[in-house]
Amino acid sequence: MRYEILCPLRVVDGSSITSLSARKIEVLLAALLVRTDETVSSEDLIKEIWGNRAPRQALAALHVYVSQLRKFLRRPGRTDSPIVTARGGYALRLGSDELDFRVFQDLVRLGGDAQRAGCVQEACEAYEEGLGLWHGPVLEDLRDGAIVNGFVCWAEQARLDCVERFVETGLELGRHREFVSYLYARIEELPLHEAFYRQLMLALHRSGCRADALGVYQSARTVLSEELGLEPSTALKRLHHAILVDAPELEVV
Fold first, then answer.
1. Cα-trace Rg, the chain
2. What is the 3-state secondary structure (H, E, C) of 13-56?
């Protein structure tokens, strides 16, 4: 069985894909998955589900939701439940099951190890495989509580870091033209993220599109000025100058 949280929450079991229709139980599962193999206190779960509007019988209702969640996760031939009662709360034990975010983390670590060892192709493939696990907004509509919302912010940063590494290794492999449209899309998604402008400028320059690369710098400068009142970073300015003078160090070694 595989839990997927890098998208709207769902559970995959072979060819079967299921999701919960009751939002409060869905929030409960999301919170337990975010804290996989850790005990989450009943108090924290109540806050996650109801916020500051918990009913008087919230603890009793939580017990009912846990029971319903156990029933939802029950599988033929499996006697134990992944949801266990712990002191003061509950925990979801992953066991032999899979959680897509943990797979993503493993792939990023694999990519990092390969990159440090100089195995750029292997690193690029690992990063690309990791990014392929993302299928839409992370835990969409379940972000009201501190546990899930905190995870989403952290996970999105992890994805962003992986995207940068994927592009970095791709450019190192000479895939400049291939990454041009990809980077334009990333800038459309995150117009204030300078790293993508830098990578796009480099990809365009190496693709023989020097004027376009310089145009991207001007676009970055305009966006940063209008949105934040800032000038481009020193790194972006240096790249702009290097492209202007056609510095040889910008070419792939």
1. 23
2. ECCEEECCCCHHHHHHHHHHHHCCCCCEEHHHHHHHHHCCCCCC
Whether the Cβ atoms of residue 236 and residue 217 lie closer than 8 Å to each other: yes
**Domain range for 87:** 2-98
CA distance 213 to 199: 10
Residue 12 lies in a domain: yes
DSSP result, 69-105: HHHHH--TT--S-SEEEETTEEEE--TT-EEHHHHHH
Q: How many domains, in total, are found in the chain?
A: 2
Residue 250 DSSP code? G
Kindly report the pTM of this predicted structure: 0.92
Number of H helices, E strands in the chain: 10, 7
| Residue 109 within any structural domain of the chain | no
Question: Dihedral (C-alpha) 15, 21, 24, 25: value to the nearest 10 degrees?
Answer: -40
Q: What is the pLDDT of residues 50-84, one digit of tens each?
A: 999 999 999 999 999 999 999 999 987 777 899 99
Number of Cβ within 10 Å of residue 73's Cβ equals: 19
